[in-house]
Amino acid sequence: MRVAALSIATAVTLAAGAAQAEGLRYFTYEPDSDAARYRTQDITFVVKPGLLNARVLKIYRKRGEDMDLRGAGPLSTGQLAQALPDESELWNLKLYEVDDKQGAGFARGACKGAQHAWLAFKALKPYQDLKMYVVTYDPASKAATLCETLAYRWRGEWKLPERKSDLGQEPGGPGDHR
């Protein structure tokens, strides 16, 4: 009987944690370098928490078009290591491919005419500053090149309001004036 109760309590706890993890988090940073001020100004990351790690889905930029992010694509961690000036920075870096259409201007500007760019940075954590590497990849030589290093200061975490309207109705119902 105790084992069954303990199993049910564990299952409920895990289910509650999984439901909470599905909610997105929003981390905002201010530029802390001239390159960051020029490329993006303030940025907000849309983060999807996971069981073992979180994944950044999108970057909202105050300057420039917002960018969706994907997995690393053809660029490997080993190639990234060759592009970075200090291999100790490679520890725990996450590599994201910038969307081709949304990030075309960003890639051309940051990487001197490149058509494609990747971003590498450590896992985002509240109250910690951020160093983001902008990298491009040459498929002919199979080599990565560091384009710019952008530095940011932590600004805050934002939460979206609950989905119900002020009247307790579902969104889009009568009285919802969003």
How would you describe what is shown here?
There is one protein chain. An 8-stranded antiparallel beta barrel has the order 1-2-3-4-5-6-7-8. Strand 3 and strand 4 form a beta hairpin. The protein has one domain (22-158). The model is unreliable at 1-21 (pLDDT under 50). It has 178 residues and is an alpha+beta fold. The protein has 4 helices and 8 strands; from the N terminus they run H-E-H-E-E-E-H-E-H-E-E-E. 22% of the residues lie in helices and 34% in strands.
Question: Helix segment count?
Answer: 4
The low-confidence parts are 1-21
Average predicted local confidence, pLDDT: 79
User: What's the helical proportion of residues?
Assistant: 10-25%
Instruction: State the distance separating the first and last CA atoms.
Output: 50 Å
Can you count the beta strands? 8
Radius of gyration: 20 Å
In terms of DSSP E residues, the strand content is 25-35%
Please summarize the sheet with the most strands: 8 strands, antiparallel, barrel
Features:
globular, alpha+beta, single chain, eight-stranded antiparallel barrel, disordered N terminus, 178 residues
Secondary-structure blueprint of this entry?
Elements: H1 2-21, E1 25-31, H2 34-39, E2 43-48, E3 55-61, E4 67-70, H3 77-83, E5 93-98, H4 104-110, E6 118-122, E7 130-138, E8 143-158
What is this structure, in a nutshell?
The chain has helices at 2-21, 34-39, 77-83, 104-110; strands spanning 25-31, 43-48, 55-61, 67-70, 93-98, 118-122, 130-138, 143-158. It has 178 residues and is α+β, with helices and mostly antiparallel strands.
